[in-house]
Structure formats: structure tokens, C-alpha cells
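Q: How would the C-alpha cells look for this protein?
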Amino acid sequence: MSVLRVITVVSAAVLLLPSCASLEGLRALVQPPTFRQTEQPAEVRLAGPSVNRPFGGATVRLWTEVTNPNPFGFTLGTLDGTLFPEGSRAAAAAFPLGLPLGAQQSSVIPIELSISFSDLPGLADVVRRAARREAVDYRLDGTIGVDAGRLGQPVFGPMTLMRGDLAERGQLPLSAK
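A: Here is the predicted structure in C-alpha cell form.
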């Protein structure tokens, strides 16, 4: 192989490889949004029996501040989450969000999760604590997908998105639907 041919092959590789790697490198620059419970307490609404919940259930609304930590905007596209009150799996949900967030911008959104009372055996302690209007600690785990334009559509997780309590200062707002 001639020296000219080696130089040509090496030059082509040097030019092509970084362009492929740069797209992956740019995707790695996208940081996941952060989630935190706001000062507004979580809301719990009781629901009667239905086709999907034959024993009834509850809807939990978590008021959440979502922050884009990046120096560029993106759209928060999906959130697939599981709610764990007091460490017990209670609800799973998938949300198509479509929430645009500018560079380092925050927005407050409600995240609603439905709990079926058919899962009651694993949630007995949670129900007792809620009935006594005691704080119920929770964890929201999940994956989140963002659309960062030319930087790609990364999915982050699974990870713990947020921790908090379902009763702020001992006052669990319960309402019947």
C-alpha cells in the first residue's frame, strides 16, 4: 500500500468518525430534567368502583416543579412512572407530556396517578396512615424522554424522579369524587 493511499484512508477515517461520534457526544450533553415537590400539597381524591377499578380507588395529584438544567431548550415528551407510598408499589402511569422548557426554565405541572383499592393488601399501612391524617412518604420512580431537537431524543432512567410526602404538615387533603 502506498504512502498516499494510507494517508487518504487515515484522513477519511479522521473526517468521518468524529461526525458519527459527535452526534452521540451531543446527546450525552443533554441532562435530564429535575423534579421536585412544590409547596402545594399533594391531593388525594377518592373514587368509587368502576370497570377499571372494581373496588374503587384514589387519584393522587402531585404538584411538581420540573426544571430544565440545560443551557438550551427542549420538550419534555414522556414520563413513565411508578408511585411507591411508604415503599409499597401503588400506581403506574404513562404520560405524553409535550411540555416545552426553555434553557434553565422551570414549570409547575400536576402529575396524576390512579391507585386501585384491589391493591389494598400491600397498601394497608399506607391507608391506615392516611386515615389518621399522618404524613405518607412517597417515591416516584420512572423514565423520562425529551426532544432536544438536533441533539436527539434521549430517554433517562429508570431513576428516582421525586420524593416527598402525601401530607404536608399532617394535613392530607382528601376529597370524594
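The first helix runs from residue 3 to 29.

The first strand starts at residue 34 and ends at 37.

Upvote if useful.
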